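Dear colleagues,

As part of the handover before I leave the project, I'm documenting each prediction I ran so the next person doesn't have to rerun anything. This entry is a single chain, and its sequence is reproduced below.
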Amino acid sequence: MPSSAAVGTDSRPPRIAADAELPTLWHFRLSHYNEKARWALDWKRLPHRRNAVIPGPHVPIIRWHTGQQQVPVLRIDGATINDSTRIIAALETRYPDPPLYPADPTERARALALEDHFDEELGPHIRRAFFYHLLQEPDAAVGTLTVGESALTRSLYRAAFPLVRAFMRHDMGIDAERSTQSRAVVMASLDRLEAELRPSGYLVGDAFSVADLTAAALLAPLLRAEEFPYQLPPMIPALAEWRAAVADRPGFRWALDMYRRHRGISAAVSG
Protein backbone atom coordinates (compact mmCIF):
# COMPACT_ATOMS: atom_id res chain seq x y z
CA MET A 1 0.00 0.00 0.00
CA PRO A 2 1.14 3.58 -0.39
CA SER A 3 3.43 4.79 2.36
CA SER A 4 2.22 7.52 4.69
CA ALA A 5 5.72 8.95 5.04
CA ALA A 6 5.02 12.00 2.89
CA VAL A 7 1.64 13.61 3.23
CA GLY A 8 0.79 16.80 1.42
CA THR A 9 -2.17 18.52 -0.14
CA ASP A 10 -2.20 16.36 -3.27
CA SER A 11 -4.67 13.54 -2.68
CA ARG A 12 -4.56 12.07 -6.18
CA PRO A 13 -4.33 8.28 -5.98
CA PRO A 14 -1.18 6.56 -7.25
CA ARG A 15 -1.12 4.82 -10.58
CA ILE A 16 -1.82 1.09 -10.60
CA ALA A 17 1.16 -1.12 -11.37
CA ALA A 18 1.85 -4.83 -11.14
CA ASP A 19 4.17 -5.54 -8.21
CA ALA A 20 6.82 -7.15 -10.42
CA GLU A 21 6.98 -4.02 -12.55
CA LEU A 22 7.63 -1.56 -9.75
CA PRO A 23 10.54 0.83 -10.33
CA THR A 24 13.19 0.84 -7.59
CA LEU A 25 14.92 3.94 -6.25
CA TRP A 26 18.21 3.79 -4.34
CA HIS A 27 18.53 6.96 -2.30
CA PHE A 28 19.81 8.83 0.74
CA ARG A 29 16.87 9.86 2.91
CA LEU A 30 18.51 13.18 3.79
CA SER A 31 19.85 14.26 0.40
CA HIS A 32 18.25 17.13 -1.50
CA TYR A 33 19.12 15.69 -4.93
CA ASN A 34 17.47 12.45 -3.83
CA GLU A 35 14.48 14.45 -2.63
CA LYS A 36 14.24 15.92 -6.13
CA ALA A 37 13.92 12.42 -7.61
CA ARG A 38 11.47 11.26 -4.91
CA TRP A 39 9.30 14.32 -5.46
CA ALA A 40 9.14 13.62 -9.20
CA LEU A 41 8.11 9.99 -8.60
CA ASP A 42 5.44 11.10 -6.16
CA TRP A 43 4.25 13.88 -8.49
CA LYS A 44 3.81 11.29 -11.22
CA ARG A 45 1.89 9.09 -8.72
CA LEU A 46 4.16 6.23 -9.77
CA PRO A 47 4.28 3.31 -7.32
CA HIS A 48 7.91 2.45 -6.61
CA ARG A 49 10.14 0.83 -4.05
CA ARG A 50 12.74 2.82 -2.13
CA ASN A 51 16.00 1.26 -1.00
CA ALA A 52 17.65 3.68 1.43
CA VAL A 53 21.44 3.63 1.79
CA ILE A 54 23.70 5.75 4.00
CA PRO A 55 26.76 7.77 2.97
CA GLY A 56 30.01 5.83 2.96
CA PRO A 57 28.69 2.27 3.23
CA HIS A 58 26.57 2.98 0.16
CA VAL A 59 29.57 2.89 -2.18
CA PRO A 60 29.96 -0.90 -2.65
CA ILE A 61 26.17 -1.37 -2.77
CA ILE A 62 25.59 1.22 -5.49
CA ARG A 63 28.71 0.17 -7.41
CA TRP A 64 27.45 -3.41 -7.43
CA HIS A 65 24.11 -2.39 -8.88
CA THR A 66 25.15 0.46 -11.17
CA GLY A 67 28.92 0.56 -11.74
CA GLN A 68 29.17 4.03 -10.19
CA GLN A 69 28.66 5.40 -6.67
CA GLN A 70 26.25 8.33 -6.89
CA VAL A 71 22.63 8.31 -5.78
CA PRO A 72 19.80 8.69 -6.60
CA VAL A 73 19.60 5.71 -8.92
CA LEU A 74 16.35 4.52 -10.49
CA ARG A 75 15.83 1.08 -11.97
CA ILE A 76 12.87 1.24 -14.36
CA ASP A 77 11.80 -0.83 -17.37
CA GLY A 78 15.11 -2.69 -17.33
CA ALA A 79 17.15 0.53 -17.41
CA THR A 80 19.36 1.84 -14.60
CA ILE A 81 19.38 5.64 -14.47
CA ASN A 82 21.48 7.77 -12.14
CA ASP A 83 21.26 11.54 -11.57
CA SER A 84 18.05 13.32 -10.59
CA THR A 85 17.84 15.31 -13.82
CA ARG A 86 18.15 12.19 -15.97
CA ILE A 87 15.60 10.41 -13.78
CA ILE A 88 13.05 13.18 -14.29
CA ALA A 89 13.70 13.16 -18.05
CA ALA A 90 13.07 9.40 -18.11
CA LEU A 91 9.86 9.80 -16.11
CA GLU A 92 8.63 12.55 -18.44
CA THR A 93 9.17 10.24 -21.42
CA ARG A 94 7.37 7.31 -19.84
CA TYR A 95 4.74 9.14 -17.79
CA PRO A 96 4.11 12.59 -19.30
CA ASP A 97 0.97 13.20 -17.23
CA PRO A 98 0.95 15.08 -14.92
CA PRO A 99 3.73 17.02 -16.62
CA LEU A 100 6.84 18.58 -15.16
CA TYR A 101 8.04 19.89 -18.54
CA PRO A 102 5.91 22.74 -19.97
CA ALA A 103 4.29 21.99 -23.32
CA ASP A 104 5.27 25.33 -24.85
CA PRO A 105 8.79 25.01 -26.33
CA THR A 106 9.95 28.41 -25.06
CA GLU A 107 8.67 27.77 -21.56
CA ARG A 108 10.13 24.27 -21.61
CA ALA A 109 13.55 25.63 -22.54
CA ARG A 110 13.31 28.15 -19.70
CA ALA A 111 12.30 25.45 -17.20
CA LEU A 112 15.19 23.19 -18.20
CA ALA A 113 17.65 26.09 -18.07
CA LEU A 114 16.52 26.95 -14.54
CA GLU A 115 16.70 23.30 -13.52
CA ASP A 116 20.28 23.21 -14.76
CA HIS A 117 21.14 26.46 -13.00
CA PHE A 118 19.88 25.31 -9.61
CA ASP A 119 21.43 21.86 -10.07
CA GLU A 120 24.83 23.39 -10.69
CA GLU A 121 24.76 26.52 -8.52
CA LEU A 122 22.43 25.88 -5.59
CA GLY A 123 22.66 22.13 -5.01
CA PRO A 124 26.38 21.51 -4.44
CA HIS A 125 26.91 24.73 -2.50
CA ILE A 126 24.08 24.34 -0.01
CA ARG A 127 25.29 20.78 0.55
CA ARG A 128 28.89 21.85 1.22
CA ALA A 129 27.93 24.63 3.62
CA PHE A 130 25.38 22.41 5.38
CA PHE A 131 27.81 19.55 5.96
CA TYR A 132 30.66 21.87 6.96
CA HIS A 133 28.67 22.64 10.10
CA LEU A 134 26.97 19.28 10.61
CA LEU A 135 30.12 17.15 10.40
CA GLN A 136 31.65 19.09 13.28
CA GLU A 137 29.06 17.56 15.64
CA PRO A 138 29.42 13.77 15.36
CA ASP A 139 26.33 12.75 17.33
CA ALA A 140 24.08 15.13 15.42
CA ALA A 141 25.66 14.10 12.12
CA VAL A 142 25.18 10.40 12.78
CA GLY A 143 21.58 10.96 13.87
CA THR A 144 20.87 12.94 10.70
CA LEU A 145 22.66 10.66 8.25
CA THR A 146 21.09 7.49 9.67
CA VAL A 147 17.53 8.77 10.03
CA GLY A 148 15.13 5.86 9.67
CA GLU A 149 17.77 3.23 10.45
CA SER A 150 17.90 0.78 13.35
CA ALA A 151 19.68 1.44 16.65
CA LEU A 152 22.30 -1.16 15.69
CA THR A 153 23.00 0.56 12.38
CA ARG A 154 23.33 3.92 14.11
CA SER A 155 25.73 2.42 16.66
CA LEU A 156 27.93 0.87 13.99
CA TYR A 157 27.86 4.05 11.95
CA ARG A 158 28.90 6.08 14.99
CA ALA A 159 31.95 3.84 15.42
CA ALA A 160 32.89 4.31 11.77
CA PHE A 161 32.04 8.01 11.67
CA PRO A 162 35.64 9.38 11.69
CA LEU A 163 36.29 7.52 8.44
CA VAL A 164 32.91 8.55 7.00
CA ARG A 165 33.56 12.19 7.89
CA ALA A 166 36.97 12.14 6.21
CA PHE A 167 35.43 10.56 3.10
CA MET A 168 32.64 13.14 2.93
CA ARG A 169 34.95 16.10 3.46
CA HIS A 170 37.21 14.90 0.66
CA ASP A 171 34.35 13.97 -1.65
CA MET A 172 32.58 17.33 -1.31
CA GLY A 173 35.62 19.56 -0.90
CA ILE A 174 34.56 20.72 2.54
CA ASP A 175 36.68 23.22 4.43
CA ALA A 176 36.09 26.57 6.13
CA GLU A 177 37.09 28.75 3.18
CA ARG A 178 35.09 26.88 0.58
CA SER A 179 32.12 26.63 2.93
CA THR A 180 32.07 30.42 3.29
CA GLN A 181 32.24 30.79 -0.48
CA SER A 182 29.45 28.25 -0.94
CA ARG A 183 27.22 30.04 1.51
CA ALA A 184 27.60 33.20 -0.58
CA VAL A 185 26.65 31.23 -3.71
CA VAL A 186 23.51 29.96 -1.95
CA MET A 187 22.52 33.54 -1.18
CA ALA A 188 23.11 34.48 -4.81
CA SER A 189 20.92 31.55 -5.86
CA LEU A 190 18.13 32.88 -3.64
CA ASP A 191 18.55 36.25 -5.37
CA ARG A 192 18.21 34.52 -8.76
CA LEU A 193 15.19 32.54 -7.59
CA GLU A 194 13.40 35.65 -6.41
CA ALA A 195 14.24 37.51 -9.61
CA GLU A 196 12.91 34.67 -11.78
CA LEU A 197 9.51 34.29 -10.08
CA ARG A 198 6.65 35.09 -12.43
CA PRO A 199 3.43 36.95 -11.48
CA SER A 200 1.75 33.52 -11.35
CA GLY A 201 3.90 32.57 -8.37
CA TYR A 202 5.80 29.98 -10.43
CA LEU A 203 9.18 30.14 -12.11
CA VAL A 204 7.80 29.30 -15.55
CA GLY A 205 4.35 30.13 -16.92
CA ASP A 206 1.36 29.59 -14.68
CA ALA A 207 1.89 26.01 -13.49
CA PHE A 208 4.24 23.94 -11.34
CA SER A 209 7.18 22.62 -13.35
CA VAL A 210 10.56 20.96 -13.03
CA ALA A 211 12.04 24.40 -12.33
CA ASP A 212 9.90 24.88 -9.22
CA LEU A 213 10.46 21.32 -8.04
CA THR A 214 14.22 21.61 -8.43
CA ALA A 215 14.59 24.93 -6.63
CA ALA A 216 12.39 23.89 -3.71
CA ALA A 217 13.89 20.41 -3.34
CA LEU A 218 17.46 21.68 -3.41
CA LEU A 219 16.64 24.13 -0.62
CA ALA A 220 15.42 21.24 1.54
CA PRO A 221 18.47 21.10 3.87
CA LEU A 222 17.59 24.58 5.15
CA LEU A 223 13.83 24.50 4.67
CA ARG A 224 12.92 21.61 6.98
CA ALA A 225 9.45 21.68 5.43
CA GLU A 226 6.78 19.72 7.28
CA GLU A 227 6.05 17.87 4.03
CA PHE A 228 9.60 16.49 3.73
CA PRO A 229 9.08 12.70 3.70
CA TYR A 230 11.38 11.80 6.61
CA GLN A 231 11.47 13.05 10.18
CA LEU A 232 14.90 14.61 10.70
CA PRO A 233 16.52 15.43 14.07
CA PRO A 234 16.52 19.06 15.26
CA MET A 235 18.97 21.33 13.49
CA ILE A 236 22.25 22.08 15.24
CA PRO A 237 22.62 25.72 16.39
CA ALA A 238 24.85 26.84 13.51
CA LEU A 239 22.36 25.58 10.92
CA ALA A 240 19.35 26.86 12.85
CA GLU A 241 20.97 30.31 12.86
CA TRP A 242 21.54 30.13 9.09
CA ARG A 243 17.93 29.10 8.56
CA ALA A 244 16.69 31.97 10.75
CA ALA A 245 18.80 34.42 8.76
CA VAL A 246 17.00 33.54 5.51
CA ALA A 247 13.56 32.55 6.82
CA ASP A 248 11.99 35.88 5.85
CA ARG A 249 13.40 35.88 2.34
CA PRO A 250 10.66 35.75 -0.34
CA GLY A 251 12.43 32.82 -2.02
CA PHE A 252 12.55 30.85 1.21
CA ARG A 253 8.86 31.43 1.93
CA TRP A 254 8.07 30.55 -1.69
CA ALA A 255 9.89 27.21 -1.40
CA LEU A 256 7.93 26.33 1.74
CA ASP A 257 4.76 27.17 -0.16
CA MET A 258 5.78 24.86 -3.02
CA TYR A 259 6.13 22.06 -0.49
CA ARG A 260 2.75 22.80 1.05
CA ARG A 261 0.95 23.01 -2.27
CA HIS A 262 2.72 20.45 -4.43
CA ARG A 263 4.76 17.90 -2.47
CA GLY A 264 1.78 15.58 -2.32
CA ILE A 265 1.40 12.09 -0.94
CA SER A 266 4.06 9.42 -1.32
CA ALA A 267 3.75 6.83 -4.07
CA ALA A 268 6.36 4.56 -2.42
CA VAL A 269 5.23 1.10 -1.43
CA SER A 270 6.46 -1.15 1.35
CA GLY A 271 8.11 -4.51 0.90
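The two ends are 9 Å apart (CA to CA). The CA atoms of residues 64 and 73 lie 12 Å apart.

All the best with the project,
I.
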